[in-house]
Structures are given as C-alpha cells and as structure tokens.
Amino acid sequence: MAAPPPLSLILPFEDARRVVAQHASQAVPSRVETVDLLHATGRNLAEQITADRDLPPFPRSTRDGYAVRAADLTKLPVTLRVLGEIKAGPSPARPAIKSGEAYAIMTGAPVPDGADAVVMVEYSSQNGDSAEITKTVTREENVVAQGAEAKRDSLLLDRGTRLNESAIALAASVGKSKLNVFVRPRVAVLTTGDEIVAVDAEIGPAQIRNSNSYSLAAQIQQAGGEPVLLPIAPDEPRHLRQLIEQGLQCDLLIMTGGVSMGRYDLVEQVLAELKADFFFTGAKIQPGRPVVFGRVSRHAASASPERQSHTYFFGLPGNPVSTMVTFELFARPMLEALAGMSLGPLAFLHARLKSEIKVKSGLTRFLPAIFSGEYANTQVELVPWQGSGDIAARVRSNCYVVIPPDREQIAAGEWVAVMLTR
Ligand code: AMP
Ligand code: MG
Q1: Structural contact between residues 103 and 87, judged by C-beta atoms closer than 8 angstroms
Q2: Ligand 2 is a single-atom ion; what residues have CB below 5 A from it?
C-alpha cells in the first residue's frame, strides 16, 4: 500500500529559509582536492591561509615624493639634503635618514629607516643635493607601516571562503600557487511529469520540453555544484521511486514538478514511502508555494564515514519560474554549504518603485522585474507576465521585486527590496 502523503507543513518564507539554514550549517563537505590558483575561481577554500611574512613586508610608500621626517617640515621653507632616490625593487640595504635629510622615493618602494612620511612638494629649488621645500601638497603620511595590513602568521583566508578575485590575489601575495578546495558536490536533478519530453525529442502538441533540468543545471553550477541529470520521471510511482532512489545516491537531490496537490503529484508520496523526514511541505511565497524540503537516511550499505548519513532533497514546483525562484531561495544555501562555503545572509538591494503594485496579502512575493537607472537613481518596475510559467518574461527581467506578506499596495516612488539575479 502507498504511504500516506506527509502532513502539510507550510511555513512563512523567513521561517522556511531559517530551517534550511539550520540544516545547512550542519552540512559536512568531506572531500578535498588541490587546484592551481588559476583554476580556483568560485571554489571554496578547504584550508586556512596565513601570512608567510608581514604585509606589507616593509614600510611602503604609497606615492612618489620625498621620504622625510615629518618633524622637519613643521616650519617651512626648509632645506633638506637629498641623499638619493629609492625605487621599488630589490635594494642591497635599507637606507636611513637623519634629521635634515630626505630621499626621493617612488610608489611601492621601501621607506628609509628614520623617515615617517612621504610628501609631495609643490615647489622646491634644487641645488646640488639640497632641496628647498617651501610648501608640501599632501598632508597624509603616505606610508603604510610594515605589517599594518597583516602580521606574519596571522589568518588571512579561513576555510569556507569562496574564492573571488580578491581572495585569489591575497593567496597569490603569500606565495600559494595551489590551493586545497572542497570537491564540488554532485547534485541529482530529477524532472517529473508525463507531459515533459527531452529537448531534442520529437514533440506532440500537448507536450512540454524539459527546460527545468537546464535552468537548474545552470544554477547548480553557479552555486558551486556539479549537476547530474537523471532521466525524466513519469507520473507513476514505481518508476518515479526508482529514479528518486538513484538521485539519493548523490550529495543532494533536486526534483522539479509533482509537488502540488494534484492527483498525479506523486513526489511527496514516494518520498514518504522512503521514510523521508519532511521539514516543510510548502512556503508562503509566490511563485513557488508547494516547495518541499527534507531528507532521507542513507542505506547502511551506501553510508560511509566520509559521507553524511542522509541525503537532503528539495521538491521544487514545476512551473519554470517557480523552479528558478525556489532554487535560489532554498536549494542554493544548502548546496553552498555542501560545497564547503560559509553561509552568508540573503541580502536585498533597495530601489524606488516606478509604478504602483497591487497584490493580495499573505505571501512573500518574488516578482520578475527590471532594475534600471544608475548611481543614486536606481528604479525598479515589474515586467508584465503570464505567471510562473512565463520564462520569456523572466528573461526580460533582471531581478525580483520582493513584496512582504503584509502589503497589498505599494505606491510608485516607495523603496522596495530587490533580489538581483546573477
Ligand atoms: P507541476 O509542478 O508538476 O504541477 O508542473 C507545473 C507546470 O510546470 C506544468 O505546466 C508543467 O508542464 C510545467 N513543468 C513541469 N516540469 C517542467 C520542466 N521540466 N520543464 C518545463 N516545464 C515544466
Ligand atoms: Mg507535473
């Protein structure tokens, strides 16, 4: 006999997101691999990187000018003896100055001992090795002290750091040409529905091409996972179960379609047969209300000390925009955690609404919109759409306007939250 569908557990958006975050914070990425610095972009660091020496390694001049003792310039004009020129690059010994002396110095060069400022002088008369300084143009000290950015052996990059250009530059600056990163988690993608056919198959008038597996694969790659596309599952429990069991062998299973209340929406029923724990079976959002999150214990045979004892799954609604939104809101943080990334908050931008919005209250809405304007004049406007099946409208948009559940009307000119899409 089929297992009964699980009890309905529909959470407000922020509660649902918190539930995912709680589980994600316990996710253990296990395997580690070593990659060249050039191939580390977007990967998550599996080691701690410390400074191999002070940064900067010497007091560094931040501009071209004269390295001086600031106290020598309290009264102008003053004549200083210029001992020579220091440029960036190796020098046999670190020069020094005493009171009344200066060096001409270039950006990035080591400031001589005894100097505590680098100044640019507006005019000076040069006479042999003496320079008469009548006025200094810059007031700042223009010297970064040795170790001011980081002390030798201090932690620069922690485990879980997503490697963007600045993290990669920092690793390079301390001599790391290879980095230990977490292996990308394998994410099974299972599309369900009798009407769904492969992209390149011959198609009948009432059939729909599978686009969700491809949008999900793209989002999975962006989030640091490796998509594993399973065959399309029919709305038939036995075959569906086989494919779900196959998907549960991966590090994460993402299903689309078959999670609404219809007679042929069988995903939850099959998962219940597999003794899944359901953490929610819906979220008060639009699009994407029927989204499901849970996990299934691994069979003893396929469990290993290196892997978690269960596989998390998401059942995302099949309407293409619902699939994209619910991936972004719920599946992404779990996938990022499995990929070894430290969790960050879900941040929204704000922009002024161009035209009034009217909706029914009760759901947090993520509506495709166009973010435009620049500098301090950002604006946002909904794109006309035919609902969550309208991929073309989603393509015309570049963000979602986020409408809180207690609002029914938002006037033109109000500031609204915006979730940018990458
Ligand atoms: P469901 O969530 O199964 O009720 O499906 C909702 C809508 O999304 C239906 O119109 C489906 O045809 C459509 N749909 C489901 N899966 C896919 C898919 N993989 N690609 C494109 N559209 C889909
Ligand atoms: Mg369906």
Answers
A1: no
A2: 193, 257-258
What pLDDT is recorded for position 130?
87
Gap from CA of 193 to ligand 1 centroid (Å): 7
Which amino acid appears at position 19 of this protein?
Answer: V
How far CA 59 is from CA of 50, 79, 88, 141, 143, in Å, comes to 20, 25, 12, 12, 6
State phi, psi for 148 to the nearest 5 degrees. -70, -30
**Which pLDDT band, with edges at 50, 70 and 90, does 30 fall under?**
confident
**DSSP conformational letter for 329:** I
Q: Is 197 in the pocket of ligand 1 (CB under 6 A)?
A: no
Instruction: Quote the tokens at residue 267.
Output: 């995903």
Q: What confidence score (pLDDT) does residue 139 get?
A: 63
- Closest to 366 measured CA to CA, from 21, 18, 17, 13: 13
What does the mean pLDDT of the chain come to? 94
Our answer on whether the CB atom of 194 is closer than 6 Å to any ligand 1 atom is no
Residue 14: both structure tokens together: 């922020």
Looking at the predicted structure, is the pLDDT value of residue 219 above 90? yes
Measure the CA–CA gap between 149 and 58, rounded to whole angstroms.
11
Residue that the structure tokens 């009407």 belong to: 195
Helices (H), 1-116: 13-26
